[in-house]
Amino acid sequence: GEDVEQSLFLSVREGDSSVINCTYTDSSSTYLYWYKQEPGAGLQLLTYIFSNMDMKQDQRLTVLLNKKDKHLSLRIADTQTGDSAIYFCASGSSGNTGKLIFGQGTTLQVKP
Amino acid sequence: GAVVSQHPSWVICKSGTSVKIECRSLDFQATTMFWYRQFPKQSLMLMATSNEGSKATYEQGVEKDKFLINHASLTLSTLTVTSAHPEDSSFYICSARGDGVREQFFGPGTRLTVL
Fold first, then answer.
1. Residue among A41, A103, A105 whose CB faces B109 most closely
2. Which residues pair with B37 in a beta bridge?
3. What's the average pLDDT block by block, 10 residues per block, for chain A (112 residues)?
């Protein structure tokens, strides 16, 4: 079945850039999403990219998509301690079900 | 953005009892709601998809008689964990989306602990 994989942990220093990587298997994925989850809370949509795009930038966030390799990355510029959280990559198909397949989540630790 | 609430935010119950979790869309009509389960330090696993006024569609391996889902209105869906056991302890998260809208909005989650 469809699968989404992420590295589990990333540690960076405050002010550095963070890059979180994700790979997916479903070639019919139309939208790819990045969500942020803070401890004990639900998911907050950070950004998403349509599969016919290579890159999307939104303030400190840059999403890169390599559709050929089915590889997605999220770059956070000037990482702050408030960015410490779990980041989930998710893929969604073009169908109307709205079903999302989530990766395991990457825990980002930002050291002051 | 749209707001989705869940109630309760946490619940502790005895084994064998049933627990109902509510998911509400506060400022939009949610034609579709999704229920997820999240184990500690793991991903979200979709349990079921519910469309207002119709039966929920359960994912493979999810017992529909154990996890009862009702989506009786455009702003409310409920998940009832029947005859709960300690292995049902988990973080349950709902999401909701409006008609013709792709984005899902997530609730804050409900932590269930079964003793």
1. A41
2. B45, B92
3. 88 97 87 90 89 92 94 97 95 76 94 93
